[in-house]
Design goal:
Layout: H1 8-14, H2 16-24, E1 28-29, E2 32-33, H3 42-47, E3 50-55, H4 58-74, E4 78-82, H5 83-87, E5 97-103, H6 109-120, E6 124-129, H7 135-138, E7 142-145, H8 158-178, H9 183-217, E8 223-228, H10 232-247, E9 250-255, E10 272-276, H11 287-298, E11 303-309, E12 321-325, H12 333-351
Parallel strand pairs: 3-4, 3-5, 5-6, 6-7, 8-9, 8-10, 10-11, 11-12
Antiparallel strand pairs: 1-2
Bound molecules: 6-O-phosphono-beta-D-glucopyranose.
Length: about 375
């Protein structure tokens, strides 16, 4: 039930911190990841040489973030594919491939068919799912549940952050199993994960009213672009998807490095561009590159709304607006940066007088191919 909230979406965005916290709950001990639900795959996880993540929509963007973390920590190559593309292109699969499906509902037909196909072709299958007892987990060798709680609004929000959390736990579990991270490193990443719920609370609290104002003055905008690099790239794609789904606005997410290879031609005076800015603190940070991307689009008249770390002053002269997020290590930044974009999609839809819980033409779970 909505419990006094104006929409399920608003309620579910406010539950993003809790969705992460509940997905972490009971899954670590003394600085190590403990996932007994993966015991049946113990031998397999030592032998696999490849992970393929399959999903649709928002879940696929969570999968892209999982790729960055699993490759960084467990040093296993990860491909992320849309379920419906994977299923119909004769993919290369064998017993050393772990196919990880990501689905909030556990009923998405495209993903279910892809899981069945993978199993028939010798791959081992793991489901990351938010719905106990749904079909995809039942068809998989093992399941790692997200504990976001029931998600009612059609466009996914809290399930997304829970899916990323589960994929990161999987990455740490694989790293432990395969010895690619030592205990201290695993513990440090777990601490980063455990610190997220409080930081997410801060973002929901601090960003909401400013974003509502921004959405209000943008209510007749025709097009919005989103730019990010590295883990900011899937966030850009997710921000764009939310605007399409909720506000029926043409929106595109781009890898910022790709700008000069095409998308910069779209920039004309007044074009609104959200830019996800990485923390400047990390010595290997892409911060300078993203700031120079901002300068390039600014010079062509873009109106830039930066999502940047508290204390990042370098970005201020180049942005029309800065939405602040707390510091987190690079792989964890996207979980914070995505929340203002979820809020923005919702607020823009509300400013346009649309139904944020039930956007036109969409269904919460698509049970046909
Ligand atoms: C879409 C929903 O149709 O399916 C999206 O509208 C969702 O919100 C996508 O991301 C995948 O759904 P699921 O249940 O497999 O995660």
């Amino acid at each position: 039930e909505k419990g006094g909230w104006p929409s399920f979406m608003k309620k579910e965005i406010s539950e993003e911190p809790e969705a992460v916290a509940k997905t972490l709950l009971g899954r670590s001990h003394d600085g190590a990841v403990t996932l007994p639900e993966l015991d049946s795959l113990h031998d397999v996880l030592g032998e696999i040489n490849r992970v393929v993540v399959i999903a649709c929509g928002t879940a696929a963007y969570a999968g892209m973030l999982g790729k960055y973390a699993i490759e960084a920590w467990a040093r296993i190559p990860v491909d992320v594919e849309l379920s419906h593309e994977f299923r119909y292109r004769d993919p290369v699969l064998d017993g050393r491939t772990l196919v990880v499906s990501v689905s909030q509902s556990g009923e998405t037909m495209d993903t279910l068919m892809a899981v069945k196909y993978a199993a028939q072709h010798g791959a081992r299958t793991l489901s990351i799912c938010n719905t106990q007892g749904s079909t995809i987990p039942r068809e998989s060798d093992a399941v790692l549940y997200t504990h976001a709680g029931p998600e009612v609004a059609v466009a996914s929000t809290k399930a997304f952050v829970a899916q990323v959390t589960a994929l990161y736990l999987l990455g740490l579990h694989l790293a432990q199993r395969r010895g690619t991270l030592d205990g201290a490193h695993v513990a440090a990443q777990l601490t980063e994960l455990q610190n997220l719920p409080d930081k997410l609370d801060q973002v929901v609290e601090s960003a909401s009213s400013r974003i509502a104002e921004l959405a209000h003055w943008m209510s007749d905008t025709q097009s919005v672009l989103f730019l990010g690099r590295h883990v900011g790239y899937p966030v850009a794609l997710e921000g764009a998807l939310k605007l399409k789904e909720l506000a029926y606005i043409h929106a595109e997410g781009f890898a910022a490095g790709e700008l000069k290879h095409g998308p910069i031609a779209l920039i004309e005076p007044g074009q609104i561009v959200f830019v996800i800015v990485p923390s400047p603190r990390d010595p290997s940070s892409l911060h300078p590159k993203v700031v120079s991307n901002i300068q390039e689009i600014r010079a062509r008249g873009a109106r830039v709304i930066a999502i940047a770390e508290i204390g990042d002053v370098a970005v201020v002269p180049f942005a029309d607006e800065v939405i602040r997020i707390p510091f987190a290590a690079p792989l964890f930044e996207p979980l914070l940066a995505v929340v203002p974009l979820h809020i923005f999609g919702m607020e823009l839809a509300m400013a346009k007088g649309l139904d944020v819980d039930q956007p036109r033409n969409l269904a919460k779970s698509v049970t046909v191919e």
